[in-house]
Design brief:
The chain is an alpha/beta fold. It contains six helices and ten strands. It has helices at 15-26, 48-58, 86-95, 109-114, 129-138, 160-167; strands at 4-7, 31-33, 40-44, 68-70, 100-105, 120-124, 142-146, 173-176, 186-189, 196-199. The radius of gyration is 16 Å and the shape is globular. Residues 15-203 form the YrdC-like domain.
Length: 207
C-alpha cells in the first residue's frame, strides 16, 4: 500500500494530523518529514520493528546505523547520554533548537535500542515545529537519518512531491512541509576536548 501524503504547515501543524502520524509511528511505521535542514527518515526509537524497517529502507544493517535522535528539548537528552558536562550543555543551549547534530557519549539505553555496541549518539533539536510536535505527541525521540537522492548532482532531495514518488512504496507517511533545504546539519563532536567540528553544514556554531 502506498504511503500517505500529508500536508502540514510549519507555523501551525494540524494536531489531528500529528495524532494520526504518531499512531502510525507507534504501530511501527516509518515516516519522511521536514526539518530545518534536509528531509529526514524517521521512526519511533522504542519500536524494534520500526527500526528494522528504517534500516531496510536505508539499506543498512541495524547494528551499522549511525544513530541520530530528534528530541523535543534538552530534557530528553539525559535518557540516552552518559553525562553532559557543563561546557557541552552550555554549547548546546546556545545553539539549539537549530541546524546542528551534537555527537555525545551514549549510555546503555542506546545499545539496547539497536542491539549494537554504540559508543556515541547524535542529538538533534531542529528549529521546525513539525518534527518537534511529532516528538512531543509521541512522548519519546525519533530515530532519524537523512534521505539521499540517486541523482549524482542533487545529494539531498528538496521537493516533497518528488520525495513521495521515490519513497511511496517504502515508507508509511511522507509529510509535505514545503520545500526542504539541500544542506545538512552541522555536526559537532562533543566527546572530545576541545569540541571538534566534524562537518560544516547549515548551522553556524556559536561558542
Amino acid at each position: 500500500m502506498a504511503a500517505e501524503f500529508i500536508k502540514l504547515y510549519e507555523e501551525n501543524p494540524d494536531p489531528r494530523r500529528i495524532k494520526e502520524i504518531v499512531q502510525i509511528l507507534k504501530d511501527g511505521g516509518v515516516i519522511i518529514y521536514p526539518t530545518d535542514t534536509i528531509y529526514g527518515l524517521g521512526c519511533d526509537l522504542t519500536n524494534r520493528k520500526a527500526i528494522d524497517k528504517l534500516c531496510w529502507v536505508k539499506g543498512i544493517k541495524p547494528g551499522k546505523i549511525n544513530l541520530s535522535f530528534i528530541c523535543e528539548d534538552m530534557s530528553h537528552i539525559s535518557d540516552y547520554v552518559k553525562n553532559l558536562p557543563t561546557p557541552t550543555f552550555k554549547l548546546m543551549k546556545k545553539n539549539l533548537p537549530g541546524a546542528f547534530t551534537f555527537i555525545l557519549p551514549a549510555n546503555s539505553n542506546v545499545p539496547k535500542i539497536v542491539n549494537a555496541n554504540k559508543k556515541t549518539v547524535g542529538i538533534r533539536i531542529p528549529d521546525n515545529k513539525i518534527p518537534i510536535e511529532i516528538v512531543r505527541a509521541l512522548g519519546n525521540p525519533l530515530i532519524s537519518t537523512s534521505i539521499k537522492d540517486e541523482d549524482e548532482y542533487v545529494e539531498y532531495p528538496t521537493d516533497p512531491e518528488e520525495i513521495y514518488e521515490s519513497f511511496k512504496n517504502l515508507v508509511d507517511v511522507v509529510i509535505d512541509g514545503d520545500y526542504g533545504k539541500n544542506i545538512p546539519s552541522t555536526v559537532v563532536d562533543c566527546t572530545t576536548q576541545p569540541f571538534e567540528l566534524v562537518r560544516q553544514g547549515l548551522g553556524e556554531i556559536v561558542y
